[in-house]
From TrEMBL:
Bilayer topology: Single-pass type II membrane protein
Chain ranges of the Alpha 1,4-glycosyltransferase domain: 262-399
Stated name of the protein: Alpha 1,4-glycosyltransferase domain-containing protein
Primary location class: Golgi
Gene3D superfamilies linked to this entry: 3.90.550.20
Subcellular location: Golgi apparatus membrane
Amino acid sequence: MASDNNTKDQSLFTDSGRHLNIRRFGWLRRQLPAGWSITKFLLLTTCAVYFILFIQRSNHFLQHTGYPVQVAADRGTCCLPPDHSQDICGRTNCTSPCPQPKPLVFNERPTESNVDHNQNAFFIETSGSGLLTMRQACAVESLAFHNPNLTVNVLFVDVPINKSVFVLQQLKEKYNNIRLVSINLNEYLAGTVLEHWYHCTDWKIGSFQVNNLSNGLRLLTLQKYGGYYFDLDIISVRPVTFYHNFVAVQDATSLNNDVIHADLKNPFIETAIQDFVLNFKQVFSNYSTIWGHNGPILITRALRKWCNVTDIESMDYVPCRGFNVLPTTSFHPVHYGQMKTLFVQPWANETGARLAWLTDRVIGVHIWNKLSKNQPIYKNSTQDYIRLARTHCPSVFSAAPDVF
C-alpha cells in the first residue's frame, strides 16, 4: 500500500516529462500529520506563496497609481484627525487616521466657490427613503416654479436617490434649476460644529431622531453655503427672493424654523447652531412645547437673545441687527390648529369664498405634514390643498394619482 502511494506521488511531480526525485522529501513525510501527503502539502504551500506575492504586487500597484492603501476609517468608529492624539469623541486608543472628506462638485452638489449664495435654496430629506412623496415633490416644484433664478437643491441624507421614481424624473425634465443631491453625513459633517454632536452623543435615542437631525442640518447647511432653507411641506405661491436674512412668525408666542434665509456666515446662524449643540435636549414627549425645543423653540430663544428683546412684537430689523422677522401671513396663513381646513371638501356654494386667507402677503403655505399626513387628498376635489397644487405645482399635480 505504501508502495502504491509513492508511485502516485511521483507521477504527479513532473517537469517537462522528467520525474522529480522526491526521495529527499522522506523526512517531510515523517513530519506531516496523519492523512497528509507530500502532494497536498506542496500544493497548499505553493498557493500560499502565490497569494503573498499577489498581495505584495497589489500593494505595489496601489502605491504607484495614487489609490490609497490605508483603509479609510469612519469618524464615528475611532479615527484620529491630523495632528491630534484623540479622536472626535475623546478616545485615545485610535490607530487609523480619519479620511479626508471628498470635495463637493457643483454639477452634483452645491459649492461655495462659483455660485451666488443668495441663489441657493435647500430642502433636506432625512427619513432615508431616497425618494419624495407627491406632497414633498409639490413643495419642491412650487419653489422652482416661482423662483427660476434659484438653484433648488434637494439633499438626500445617506441614501442613494431612487431616480426611477416617475415624479422625480418629471421634476428633472421640467426644471433645470432643480438638483437632486445625495450627501454622505460623515463627509458633510467633517470638521463642523455638529461633528461631535452627531458621533458622540445620544441624539438618536427616542422617537424624534429624524427631527433632531433635520433641525441641526438646516442650520449647518446655511452656515456652510448660505441661501434659503425650506421644509418639504411648504407650497410656495409667489417669489421669495426679495426677502433676505429672515425667519417667520408662527403665532403670537413663537417663531418657526421651517423657512430660513441667511447670508453665508451670517452671525445669527452661527449663534443658533451653537445653541443647538450646547442646549440640545433629548425629547421623549409629543407635547408641542417640548418636542420643538431643538427646532422652532431654539430659533425663538436664539433670536430673543440676538435681538436682546423678550417679545416677538419687538423683533425688528434694527434691534435684530439686520435680521428680519416676517409676519405670520408670510408662511403660516393657516395655523396648525386649523390645518384640517386645507383638506376638507367644501360645499358647492362655498368654493368661491375659500382661500380668502391667500392674500398678496402670503409667500408660502405651511401644510403641517406632521399633523396632516393622514388627511387624504382627492385630485378631482375642490379641497384648498388641491387648488394650491393645481396652480403652483402643475407637473406634480398632473402626475399625481386620484388619491394621494
